[in-house]
Amino acid sequence: MSLRLSFSLSLFLVTAAAAAASLAAAASGALPGCPNMCGNVSVPYPFGIAQGCYMPGFRMTCNDTYDPPRMFMNSGNLHVTEITDDHLTIDILIARDCYKPLNLGPDIRQMYVDVTGTPYTLSYERNRFTALGCDTIAINYRTSFLTDYTSGCVAFCGDTSSITNGSCSGIGCCQTAIPQGVKRLNTMLRSLMNHTTSFSISPCSFAFLVDQERYVFDVADLRGFASRSRVPAVLDWAIGSQACEEVKGAPDYACGPNSYCLNSTNGPGYRCRCNSGYQGNPYLPGGCQDIDECADASTNPCAEICTNTPGSYVCSCRSGKAGDGKKSGTGCIRQSKRFPLIQVVLGAGLGSVFLLAIASWSYWALKKRRMIVLREKFFKQNGGLLLQQQIASRDGAAETARIFTSRELEEATDNYSESRVLGRGGYGTVYKGILPDQKVVAIKKSKVVEEGQVEQFINEVVVLSQVIHRNVVKILGCCLETPVPLLVYEYVPNGTLTHHLHDGGHVSSLSWETRLRIAAETAGALAYLHSAAARPIIHRDVKTANILLDKAYTAKVADFGASRLVPLDRAQITTLVQGTLGYLDPEYFQTGQLTEKSDVYSFGVVLAELLTGQKPLSPTRPQQEKNLAIYFLLAMRGNRAFQILEPRVRNEGSREQLEGVMEVAKGCLRLKGEERPTMKEVAAELERLRRASAGAHPWAEGGGDDTAYHSLVDQRGNVNASAYYTSASSGDDSIEAHILLSLDMQR
């Protein structure tokens, strides 16, 4: 047992000795058993001065013939005076060139420092190439791992008053930086005047590479440097020639445990550093040792209890105290035994917030559910199921009549923002919308839809969605999840014809050629609706405000809110009178019988508007001429039609062409619908007039009886009501009947 105890004790002592040696080596920075000093310079690993004590390329020689001993790089003559984690400091020669009569020994006009083939590089951050003198030209050149280069500087001086201590701006002293990656530096020193012009100030020139942190120019150096032969310079060093990313995990990776890799900034290779909370030599096995922040009670960072952990520490407080435990933080504060008011208030507050959040979520969920139910109700109420059936039963309808959700249109119009309003009318408001696919549309939000007309509305949506004509605004679909259905049309960007004819800044903005083309395109679109569509469509509200223009000023007939589909077996339908004063067909107003000739009359007013540039109703004209149709027909009867034309129209249009269009307008404005032309005939004639002079018009023959005018309107312009009713009931198509009916409509 004694033998066994003795063996255990011996083993413990050997292990303890090995651990102590390892700790001592880590503290000194050298490999175990290797010398760690040469004179007064420490030699940390990977450097070494004995065999097996260094990494390849980091051999040092300690010359003990000096007192104290000196260390040299490898076996050369570069004297190493200091080794740090990043740098080596060495002494290098000074180049010198003096005035010949001086007995100062031989000049050294050329010198060099060369560390090619070593893990060292001249530090471009610390070193500066420096020249001293008053007649000095110093040049340095080198080959680096990057490029070759030549550089230098010039120093002159006039007198001592111009030289400043600490300044190397070219007067007595000049400096220049060296590029990155220098391995060899050659220096040449020259004098222009052989120092004769400034002999009294500086009989010599000097050039050297020096650590800028260890040298500050002094005027006395211009003479005193003759007694110096060397100055300190700095070398950067790195392990190998690969970057951290390339060498990590390799067998020759130099960084030990608890350390990290850092790429060299001055050439290839890398260096190692201990992690935060560790210290020591990262190149040694186990070289980075944990720092015990708690070892010294007077300096540790904790206010009371400090617990050391690998690479860090933990601060805590004794029982009865609270806080982060750090001297730099809240420390440790004694806890009182009073009622925990703060905790109670905080708990109650958090509980209230939680209950409020639950209540808000419940309210939001209930509101969302109600909105879903309400949308479903509106969808069914507005004929959504019927529209789905129509789409399913009609070929091609599914691609044209799309059913939008209310959320889609809210997002498209920025929740119906006022900034998105394109226009307002008697039937509703039109908004500009941007769909998720960035397609721009116009969304019409109607004010009201007649009760009992759901089936007709749905049928109109389906039929209109199948209307394909370049001069008819395309209806893309609708939304039925709102109290009043929303219609989605293609977006036409250039405003209405009214805007271009009457709004400020647009007076005479349209040429006669453009106006005639717009008239022909509009007539063609109406003719298509009357005769070429699947079912005849009467627009019922033809006016310049419902004619949109695109960027090319192409006409687009819009706003079918008042439109009606005509049954295939009927030529007219009876409806409540709807339309816009000034454009409204007098016969339709009087009888309530809506025919396609009602659109013809309204189009006649549009033609008069294009010709004269005047509004359909104007308070500035006499009482009986407030209506543009009457004003226009009276002018034609009095052979003064050319006088009321807009000047630009009169100047640009040929007489034959203008007369032809005026005759077309006159034919459209006949009081009796059966005497008006069809829109197909109007479209054909306008298209002909665009290409040729005016000719004969079958509907322009004859006119109403003009003799009754003075019997219907007295000298003051007052209406003879009994004469009007007699005229109207007898079917009189005179202008006077127009006047009386127009005045009656305005009442």
UniProtKB/TrEMBL annotation:
Pfam family, one: EGF_CA
Domain EGF-like span(s) in chain numbering: 290-324
Transmembrane segments: 341-366
Keywords, in A-Z order: ATP-binding, Disulfide bond, EGF-like domain, Glycoprotein, Kinase, Membrane, Nucleotide-binding, Phosphoprotein, Repeat, Serine/threonine-protein kinase, Signal, Transferase, Transmembrane, Transmembrane helix
Record-linked Gene3D superfamilies: Laminin (2.10.25.10), Phosphorylase Kinase, domain 1 (3.30.200.20), Transferase(Phosphotransferase) domain 1 (1.10.510.10)
Protein name as it appears in the record: Uncharacterized protein
GO annotations of cellular component type: plasma membrane
First-listed, main subcellular location of the protein, grouped into a coarse class: membrane
Compartments where found: Membrane
Keyword Signal: yes
Signal peptide extent: 1-19
Function: Serine/threonine-protein kinase that may function as a signaling receptor of extracellular matrix component. Binding to pectin may have significance in the control of cell expansion, morphogenesis and development.
Protein kinase domain location: 416-700
Organism: Colocasia esculenta (Wild taro)
GO terms, biological process: cell surface receptor signaling pathway
Molecular function terms from GO: ATP binding; calcium ion binding; polysaccharide binding; protein serine/threonine kinase activity
SMART domains: EGF (SM00181), EGF_CA (SM00179), S_TKc (SM00220)
Binding site for ATP: 445
Higher taxonomy: Eukaryota, Viridiplantae, Streptophyta, Embryophyta, Tracheophyta
Membrane topology: Single-pass type I membrane protein
Superkingdom of the organism of origin: Eukaryota
